[in-house]
Amino acid sequence: MVADQNSHHRLPFIKLLTLDNYPEEYAMLKLVSLLVLITLSWATARITPEIYRQRRAAVRAQLGPGERIVLLTETVTIRNGDVEHEFRPNSDFWYLTGFGEPEAALVLTGEDVSFSLGDQDYRGNEFLFLREKNPVRERWTGIHLGAERAPGALLIDHALPIDIFTDALPYLMQGTGTIYVNLNRDKLEQSLTVLAEATLQWVPKENGVFIIADAVRRFRKRLRARTRGIKPPNWKIAYKSTDEIIHPMRLRKSASELEVLQRAVDVTGDGLVAAIQRVHPGLYEYQVQATIEYEFKDNGAQREGFPSIVASGPNALNLHYSENSRQLQSGELLLMDVGAEVDMYTADVARTVPVSGSFSPTQRELYGYLLEVQAAAAAALKPGITINELNQVAREVLEEKGYDQYFIHNLSHWLGMDVHDVGRKATPAEPGMILTIEPGIYIPVDDQAVPQSYRGIGMRLEDDFLVTEKGAVILSGKIPRTIEEIESLMKQ
Ligand SMILES: [Mn+2]
Q: What is the CA(214)–ligand 1 centre distance, in A?
């Protein structure tokens, strides 16, 4: 997949948690099972609550006194009527909590903060806000972990009901000079509004830095009353993005993250192999998509990491085509760019195959260039090199062949919890980072510079690579990739 895209999905735990029919004497068993299920379903199998706790500690170690992190998860989005899009938590939020419910927020503080709210005393440096237990609502939408169980299940200091988030924020923000907040593109305004309304009506200014605006002066009196005598924060609060602290951590994958991501790549391979075997003229793109996504789910992936691209013939010229409604024609190519998401990590692999089972001479020639470009870039992928530089390597190979102008997107992106994962194109590669290498050639249908047989061809080859001290290690190498491998698989 070649650029940004968001998706909204739901975690699978909801259906697991219906344990209401146990006899009385199994009450203890029921409780234990429930806690085990909660632990298993909120944290991935290999990434334990202890690991999430260590990540929070590593983040807090980077916070000075007066510095705060406020992370909000995603919200549930309405699809139509009263039907919701599937929910998928915010990746930064999940990275630090392993907690997958909507309506939650995490506050980490640089120094211990103490306050009393209601009849509770709090003292600590990590505070999770989440939905309270609500038996009526839970009957419809699944079990809420709730504030009482959260500290044990998630190994977090303090858990409070999300309903008192705005009441607690002024206490948590006492003495604040810098707030790191997740400035999610879609939620920027929302995140800041929550903070602004809950604290002291800070109003956004340019360049990502925000100060208290004039309006606050008018509200100040009222706010003082509202915050019950708490000293308001400094006049100048710097808002920064949590990217600065969390993203360098997310970019370097641990052994357990690598293991999970490898599973996502392997499941993606299951889907692609089944699809390639099924492809023939007359089939529809959505039928190929169904085969791919069936294999994903059947092999334990919770969802796709992004909408599956199954593009035949000229549809491949549309980089993010996902309508998948066209009938496959003999003689054409089929481009599949897909990724299974396993325990919140997604793969991203693309294969282009001949609908009739064998590449035409033109298709063979162009596909050969993609293989060459990918091999050249993989050979150049060593610690220290940037995505920008890899892109340059690829372009030089394609320029020699005369096809550079048909390569219309970047060669690589980082890969992880988000398909276009955190990290920049100028970030030097380090061991433990994972990225894609995806050369493509897209020749417009009416291009006069090439013979007829080249027009309307769109193809992409994408694999996932781990950076090591010794160079690149391909994670998706088992998925048929060469002309011989693809043609032989299609004959089976
Ligand atoms: Mn990609």
A: 45
* Residue spans per domain, the chain: 12-248, 252-491
- Distance (angstroms) between ligand 1 centre and the Cα of 349 equals 7
Sign of the C-alpha dihedral computed for residues 326, 327, 330 and 336 taken in this order? positive
Q: Is 452 exposed, middle or buried (0-12, 13-18, 19+ CB in 10 A)?
A: exposed
- Which pLDDT tens digit goes with each residue over 225-260? 444 444 444 446 676 778 889 999 999 999 999 999
Same fold yes or no, 12-248 and 252-491 = no
12-248: CATH topology is Creatine Amidinohydrolase; Chain A, domain 1 (3.40.350)
- Dist. CA 105 → ligand 1 center (Å): 30
Contacts of 137 (CB under 8 A, 6+ apart): 144
Cα-to-centroid distance, 9 and ligand 1 (Å): 20
Length of the chain: 492
Distance 330 CA to ligand 1 centre (A): 27
CATH of domain 252-491: 3.90.230.10
Q: For residue 337, give every residue at least 6 positions away whose Cβ sits within 8 Å of its Cβ, in sequence order, or none.
A: 1, 2, 308, 309, 311, 348, 349, 350, 460, 462
CA of 58 to the centre of ligand 1 (A): 30
Tens-place pLDDT, residues 54-112: 999 999 999 999 899 988 887 788 899 989 899 999 999 999 999 999 889 999 999 99
Q: pTM for the full model?
A: 0.84
Neighbours of 147 (CB within 10 A): 21
Q: How far apart are CA 433 and CA 424, in angstroms?
A: 12
**Residue 4 alpha carbon to ligand 1 centre in Å:** 9
CA 40–ligand 1 middle distance (angstroms) = 30
Q: How far is the CA of 115 from the centre of ligand 1 (A)?
A: 47
